[in-house]
Amino acid sequence: MKRLFLGLFMSVIICPVFAQQWGYYTLYAPKNGTQAFLVDTANSPVTYKTWTFSSSARNAYSTYLIPGDTLVRTTNYTASTHPGTGGITGKFQKVTWDGTVAWEYSYSSSTTQMHHDICPLPNGNVLFISYDSRTSSEATQAGSSTASAYWSEKIVEVHQTGPATGEIVWEWKLWDHLCQNYNSSKDNYVSSISDNPQLLNINYAGSGNLPDRWHMNGIDYNEELDQIVVSMHFMNSVFVIDHSTTTAEAAGHTGGNSGKGGDFLYRWGNPASYGASGTTIFNTIHDAHWVSGDNANYPNALAAYNNQGGTGGKTAFDVWQPPYDGYNYSYTSGNAYTPSTYDYQYTSTFTASNEGNSQQLPNGNSLINNFQGSIYEVSPTGTVLWTKTGAQSTHAYRFEKCFVRRITASADASDLVICSGDNTELSASATAITEVNPVFTYVWTSVPAGFNSTDSNPVVSPDETVTYNVIVTNTASGCSDEASVTVTVLPSPAIPEVTLDDNELSCSEAYAYQWYFNGNLIADATNQTYLITENGTYQAEVIAENGCSSMSEEVVFAGLNDFTSVAENDISIFPNPSDGKFMIESNNINFEFYVVNIAGETIFAGKNNTEVDLSSLDNGMYYVNFVSNEKIITRKIIIIK
Fold first, then answer.
1. Is cis: bond before 462, omega within 30 of 0?
2. Which of the chain's termini has less CB crowding within 10 Å, N or C?
3. Which domain holds residue 478?
């Protein structure tokens, strides 16, 4: 659907409504004109926004406003030769709020021609109707009783690949779903037309003339069902097909959510077209579409513009509830599809012999557009509540203020993954491309609950994983948007315990360690133990596998004051070089020392030793550091074995 589809409801709910206008802005684009307009329905009406287009890209048929404040509009383009006459388009554009043509795609050749309506899809692609020209010999082989060329129909879905290019990603052809009981030796033969309503009888003339026997003119999409509805002028009918198929399945009779491939899932309006009895509802049909699921009276119904089918031949629109059956529609073989007539019809005071559309609004009102004149908003009882005269637009649509003046919010955090106890700064931003210098307000909440803020960038320190939600509001329009960001909190390891044995510190077991002296990191001090070399304050940091850490309590050490100062000339090592066994001679009774390798790693420590055995070490140069409360004296020792 070109508007939001909210769910399936099989029953019709009639709700009391008040005769008041709905929505805020009405979009229309005069046919063959170079402008599109949004008018403020609350202000008599005042034009809120005008787009102006190139004179070489005049309005052709339908114009839509999609989320992102972008127009999707048809314009005229034809190849030198092409099939088709009325409703020719040939090209569509996506035009941004500032008038930039973001995408322009043309489809016209000697055998194909985009025409009439288009349908912007939620995924950004566009559906369009195209003629699919067939020769008289193809028609004869298909079982036509008349040897004539046909302008058959197809539906194409195109995906943007560049500013003026696109890739066809899905296609459905009417020519693949024909039947006939005229000639059993030709294709598409069936013994009974009425037993095959899923196919179109190639020989049913309807109100058209060859080669343009069918003439599609309206298309809409239902996202929840993944189905397409089209109106067919000369068949005075609407048809529903499955869009969930592949292109190959769409050419056949199996596959897709319905299991029926590209065959008709439902048709309505003219039972005679498939050999059933019943009333012909439409007298020139346009604008087949689904009613949005939030409509007060006919949620998820189907609707169409009945050009001359109202009371006294006046223009009307009809609304009816199709017989939904999952992804299919209930049907009794040999009978007409239900319901037998519409659930609601509004008959206007005018007669529009061609084109036009309607829109069923959430509060039960409707918009009806006379291509040859004005746009009207009417209540369910037929009271005219609002009029825009002289619009002369093929289609017109009403929007709520915040659909047009929407804002887009986003949320983030300086760190999305933190450790317990750490801080992170949340951030919220918003854009409002329809506004000049918008001013935003912010309301933050959280799940689990407990956090509230009106700052744009609050700082948080969660102790568990939290999702932060922010509602951003444009103060000028009152329009809001909501965004969220989740901050994942990793557990920190338990606070480590540090013990002291003489002058050696030892930390409780952890994945990794780092020692600090007087608040400063000690380079390469990453073992579970650390030999103190000077008096001061020590701490151990333990790091878990997830990268989070915890710091121990401070340990104050002053024990080196117990030792007599070591003078430079008071200490000696011999023999040097040695085989690893050497003597220490000092005039001091008390002294400490530790031995480190050339990488700075402590490999031995002692206190008041006079004989040292390092014969287990490899040959090389080592350093013996003697420590006191005042300084460190270093001696080199060379081991050669």
1. no
2. C
3. 408-490
